[in-house]
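Hi C.,

You asked whether I'd gotten around to modeling the 471-residue construct. I have! Everything is below, sequence then structure, no commentary in between.
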Amino acid sequence: MGRKSYDVDLAVIGGGTAGLVGAQTAAGLGARVMLVEERRTGGDCLYTGCVPSKALLAAGSAAAAARRALRYGVDVEAVTVDFARVMQHVRAAITHIEPVDSPEALEAAGVSVMLGRAHVLPEGGVRVDGRTISARHVLIAVGSDPAVPAVPGMGDVHVLTNENLWDFEVLPRELVILGGGPVGCELAQAFARLGSSVTIVHRGARVLPREDPDASAILATALENDGVRILLEDSAATVTADGSGGGRVTTTSGRDLPFTHLLAAAGRTPRSAGFGLEEAGVVLDDAGSIVTDRHLRTSVPGIWAAGDVTAHPKYTHTAGVHASIAAGNAILGPLRTVSGVEPPRVTFTDPRDRRRRPSDWARRDRADGVPHSPGPRRDGAAHGGVHAARLRPAGKDRRGHDRRAACGGVPRRGVPRRPAEVVRHRRGRSDPPVPDAQRRRVECGDRPDAEGARPARAGGGRTIGPAPAGA
């Protein structure tokens, strides 16, 4: 009996960051790929997340810089904000990037695009608006939705989220934000600098609860300096509409907060319902996220998942990396695994909160006693970036080793980060020790000597042992 034929090698459901990267990765490997998107390609990052929010923050930053200009000897008339033009700027940023994620760009990359609602079939493949497409593999990359707290009376008012925030033309006069995470803090600062009266209601003891306490304190001070009112260890108990589009939030502590606009920034929930996943046998966790293994396989052979619909950290860059891993594993076999290291992240407030493997920073600070502290800002403000580079002597690598010693006094990137005596390869093999003289030549990129050492990999800086006989 001959092998079963399929319409495509990989069917990708979802046209956001994960779907776009996964589809183009598979197409680049020579696979036949179809991407199915219900609305528009580009996803949350382009239309409701990264791009519009950073464009709005840029407008707020310009207004704040104009107000601070006097202390530098620059006279600026009273700063006024035309919010309709601000929103034109935001939409222009989206329009500028839109062609990169368009169906035409995908088609040029070798990906077929179909608009419609996809439904995963138990026997394999997908059904799109009544049309069945057989696929050797399916990649689920449908993303997530903003979470709206279940507060009595919330359904009686128009609740803003990051998805519908960009539709109005009038600057909110009184904005109450439920949530003090990255989205809440970014939008609070942007709107406060543009002229809104902003209040953050946060149930935790500090804003940005996942970040370093010192970073949270610095950011809270910066937000308050911009006019943001922060209510900590409090939450919305009831919402009452006033009949004019606004209303009041009564908090659990008894505070009464009037608003013209109410914004929910309380996290995100996976968009896993309505795609036939459970009927196909795909296992979900209690939060509705797709359960995957370290290769990003689901519980059903041939079905993979990446991005916000999984339980992994919900960052755009994480979604892209994981989608590339999942697509490559689907086409070539499960060769790559996801990393267990916490991904770096940035909250684009002023100052920005940048996070890179916090456990490593804490461990290194304890080891060498050198703390990492805020650095100077270019505009001369008192506070700097919340996360600044640790200082180390010139010619030293990040672990304090002398880079000059190994390369004849010339600093060179790529000195091995692992002990030279034992190098563990991907398959768990260990090469025998390498003589010091030979190792230095390999580390510095010299040609192998007569003993037959293999040259170091380009840019990798990895010590390679002697070549096997006959190599």
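If it helps when you're writing up: The first helix runs from residue 17 to 28.

Thanks,
B.
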